[in-house]
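Here we describe the complex-level prediction in full. Unlike the single-chain runs in Section 2.1, the two entities below were treated as one system.
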Amino acid sequence: MTHRGDRTLAAAGLARVEGEGGMYVRVSDGQVEEVRLDIYEPPRFFEAFLAGRAYTEPPDITARICGICPVAYQTSACWAIEAACGVSLPGPLGDLRRLLYCGEWMSSHALHIYMLHAPDFLGYPGAVELARDHREIVERGLALRRVANSLMELVGGRSVHPVNVRVGGFYRAPSAAELAPLADQLRRALDLALDTVRWVAGFDFPDFSCDHELLALREPGRYPIERGTLISSEGLEFTAAEFEQHVLEEQVPHSTALHARLAGHSGSYLTGPLARYTLNSQWLPPAAAAAAHEAGLGPSCRNPFQSIIVRAVEIVCAIEEALRLIEGYQPPASPFAEAVPQAGTGHGVSEAPRGVLYHRYELDSAGIVRSARIVPPTSQNQAAIQEDLRGFVQDRLDYDDERLTHECEQAIRNYDPCISCATHFLTLRMDRE
Amino acid sequence: MTGAPAAARRRVVVIGIGNEFRRDDGVGPEVLARLQERADPVQAGPVQADPVELVSSDGEPASLIEAWTGAALAVVVDAVLADPPVPGRLHRLALDRLTTDVRPVSSHGLGLGEAIGLARALGRMPDRLIIHAVEAADVGHGVGFTPAVAAAVAPLTAAVLRDLP
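The structure predicted for the assembly as a whole is:
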């Protein structure tokens, strides 16, 4: 293979939606010298677009950044603006926020597992081919999403770009009677989710481990979903307000995206399911904890290929949590807490399906957004993905380009780069010298 | 108010795919908004026909399939990128359950084509699927249509209406 010079390999189907991106690998004398990845579009347009808008608008506007995780954007935006306004969310409204977020986890994880990730393990080019041979399996994934969408429609008003979320809570809170039939659906979905864990636990996983520092939220006593403070596997602990002191984004020469690193720590870090699980597995609710154990997961998981198991376990967790929240639901006295704007800056974090999502808004006394900052999980993970790919490619240099491209795509899919932010085509360019 | 039994009703859904923060890509949601404006006064009066469902979508295949499963007619409105491009040009493609494989290309990558493939594999195609597409000039970040696409919104909406019962 050393006789080949520059080669350009194009592969479609890593992700959808507009954008340009690719992966570049340079190999010299049998050593991977360089791996560059450009899979992600930063939300700069939205940050600029938000300046000058009313403080009530970011939840709706930022929800349009990502079709797959609008609730995450709404939630982080709400926390940040509520913090700037000095308003805290009463318990029942916080519970509703978590309930809505559970729906998004279910929907996003089911989509990734069934439509994008599982076909890789089963040797299918995509979900269409998987469905031709295993219709009932794909139907199970769609059934999970249907329940998730029912939850998001009831609590969020809509499943795509929920319209019922506002700063301080919701426009309308559901009644206990409305939530009851949803609980029935969720109980049935719990079985589907447990079947999903067993199914994916049976896949073959390459022996691969990453040693990145892991960053996730923590909320002692429960698995972090919609809120928490930040912790890392190297002992960092900080609040949303301190996020920008600890997470630095740097321009790298070959990419429009910024690369994130933790201040004072060398190397890249990872956020998302592996980090959440490894830093918080002790807080999983009982059925999710049992499912994780049955699937062979220990208290931590550092094999990115096994993130599919963690996602499946997190679906179980989200359903259990949703059921618990519905069971204890008391409609709030008011569907929202009044947030009176004041001059100041607020920060918000939540665990988007792909990892920590940070928002910061600076408001003036009239409630006009002066500046906005959004740091999505995929931008934080880009450097870590790149580093993993370097080792991954190094171990597979004897593969031909087609196979290597395909396996790199699979390796990238382990991290579930946001398909709304990520690129349409993965183009691999490989120079073998 | 006692019309045909629910089971005999013919479900009709219009699905607008797109993102209004991606310039011309927002044409699907815009057509939905125009249909909604037309529908509102009608709904205030005596209900004659079953209302047409309007669904906003990001084009993700599983969501599209959910939206059109069980429909007698699904009309999808989307922006497409063509090469060579004629921004504003309208396309209409009608598929029934028996149409052989076709892979429409949308600005959402393989989303729509994948959705059709998946729906076929799962037996979840609507009885009839009509795709209305307009060629986009700019799907980068931003709001507002390019002139050619702005001019196409009215004829596109009219074309969608002609397909509705």
